[in-house]
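chain below, 110 aa
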Amino acid sequence: MVRVYLRLAAIAVALHAAGCAELRWHKDGLVDAVLAKELAECQQVARLRAYREAWPFGLFPPYLIGMDRRGYPIAGYPDQREVERFLLEHDLVRGCMRGKGYALVPVEKP
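prediction:
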């Protein structure tokens, strides 16, 4: 739990240090279509890997949050595990893109 808070604090500090600048992936001499394709590939691989690592034994049964107006149950999943999966997925995407030679750079505003 502490690890999650430390990561969130690190992200907050990084965003503040960047002046809340919008970032984008960049690689010299590359067209946007190739960037979009490679980013989608990295995201797909990262999503599957993060899901497997966050839920190592398969899909855990959801817990009951409440009931809707018609009486149907509303299910949810443990928040902590989902936060860890989300952070891991973004770390994996960042590692994949850097491995392909990309760098995060601030978006240039006209």
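The mean pLDDT is 79. The longest strand covers residues 63-67.
thats it, cya
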